[in-house]
Specification:
Chain lengths: 116, 115
C-alpha cells in the first residue's frame, strides 16, 4: 500500500516568506508526527497529532511555526517569515492506532527546505 | 522529562566484526518502548528493532539484537557480522506509553563499515 507522502520534496524560499509543508499519512494511521533534521544531525521533535488534536506542541521552535491536521488525515506544517536557521529536512511520520506499543513510526521521504 | 542519549557521534568498524551502538534513556514512567532506526545516505528512515519495558527477553531481528539493561536504563543495539551496507546513521528512540504518544530520538551515531 501507499506509504507516507510528503510534498514538496524540495522547497527553496527567500528569507521572510511563508512556507507550507504537507504530509499525507498512511490511511488509517491515527497518529502523525513532525520532526526536523538539520544537516547530519538528529531528529528534533516538533509536534504530534492524535486524530485532529495536538496533545504536545512543545517542540515547535517559535510562534512562527504552526501545524494543523484535518479529517484525521492530511497535516500541514506552516512556517511564517522563514529564517535561514529554518533550513532543514522536515520529516513526517505516522503510526497506526494504539494496538500495541511496538507499532513503529512509518516515515515519509521528507521535505528539504532551504531558506536563502 | 524524557531524554535519549547516544554518546558515540561516529564509529569505524571492520567488515564482519560485531558492533555495539550505545543508547541510554531517562524516563519516570514504568511503561515505555524503545526503537532503533537506520538512516542510510538516501535519507529514508528504516525501522530495525523494538524493545518494550516489560519484555522479559532481549529483542532480536536477524543480525540485530538489543542489549536491554533496564536498571541501567540502556538499550544498546548490537549488529553481528557487520556488512558494508550497514554504513549509515543509527537512531535510538523512546515512547512513553502512559503519557501521550510522543516519541523522541537521540542525536544518532554514524557507523562506517570498513572493507
Amino acid at each position: 500500500g501507499a506509504g507516507v507522502s510528503q510534498s514538496p520534496s524540495n522547497k527553496v524560499t527567500e528569507k521572510g516568506k511563508d512556507v507550507e509543508l504537507r504530509c499525507d499519512p498512511i490511511s488509517g494511521h491515527t497518529a502523525l508526527y513532525w520532526y526536523r533534521q538539520s544537516l547530519g544531525q538528529g531528529l528534533e521533535f516538533l509536534i504530534y497529532f492524535q486524530g485532529n488534536s495536538a496533545p504536545d506542541k512543545s517542540g515547535l521552535p517559535s510562534d512562527r511555526f504552526s501545524a494543523e491536521r484535518t479529517g484525521g488525515s492530511v497535516s500541514t506544517l506552516t512556517i511564517q517569515r522563514t529564517q535561514q536557521e529554518d533550513s532543514a529536512v522536515y520529516l513526517c511520520a505516522s503510526r497506526p492506532p494504539r494496538t500495541g506499543g511496538n507499532s513503529p513510526l512509518h516515515f515519509g521521504n521528507g521535505t528539504r527546505l532551504t531558506v536563502t | 522529562a524524557q531524554k535519549i542519549t547516544q554518546t558515540q557521534p561516529g564509529m569505524f568498524v571492520q567488515e564482519k566484526e560485531a558492533v555495539t551502538l550505545d543508547c541510554t534513556y531517562d524516563t519516570s514512567d514504568p511503561s515505555y518502548g524503545l526503537f532503533w532506526y537506520k538512516q542510510p545516505s538516501s535519507g529514508e528512515m528504516i525501522f530495525l528493532i523494538y524493545q518494550g519495558s516489560y519484555d522479559q527477553q532481549n529483542a532480536t531481528e536477524g543480525r540485530y539484537s538489543l542489549n536491554f539493561q533496564k536498571a541501567r536504563k540502556s538499550a544498546n543495539l548490537v549488529i553481528s557480522a557487520s556488512q558494508l551496507g550497514d554504513s549509515a546513521m543509527y537512531f535510538c528512540a523512546m515512547r512513553d506509553m502512559n503519557r501521550d504518544d510522543k516519541i523522541i530520538f537521540g542525536k544518532g551515531t554514524r557507523l562506517h563499515i570498513l572493507p
